[in-house]
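Hi Prof. W.,

I finally got the Isochorismatase family protein prediction working! I wasn't sure whether to trim anything, so I left the full sequence exactly as given:
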Amino acid sequence: MLLLDPARTHLVVIDVQARLMPAIFDGARVLANARRLVAIAGLLDIPVLLTEHNPAGLGGTVPELADSGPVIAKMSFDACGDPDFVAALPDDDEELVLCGCEAHVCLGQTALGLMSLGRRVIVVQDAVGSRSPESKAVALRRLERHGAEIVTTEMVAFEWLRSAEHPQFRAVLNLIK
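And this is what came out:
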């Protein structure tokens, strides 16, 4: 199926960390969209998994997202290099929607690692950041060339809902506006 299936989706939030976010270009927008995705996932009972890269150096996940789901601390840029992350992944047929930082480092390498494991990877471009816009743009082009789907927060929200008749439609719409 080409549309996202909310019954088979996992949201993966990569390294949205307190000391990193101030350095991210348009970081407030990236964080706002990551928060929207996490909130929508909560409304729709979609599981969330978070990573933190070198939390001793970069701090923990930003407080707004810290309690969103299990957190995997890692040192490898590609989270797939950490056995705890791989063990926490859902079944092979689950779609993995990724947001976070940095597009050209940890998020990018994790997306490539997941695709090398045969996973369907969806990257939410307006909820992904890098320190420079050029790095983000190049990373997104590379990921798309290698098979990642590039979408927006609204695309994810409305694909998860499927219909204006969904019981959570109004609540999700309020988060999008």
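The longest helix spans residues 27-43. Does that look reasonable to you?

Thanks,
D.
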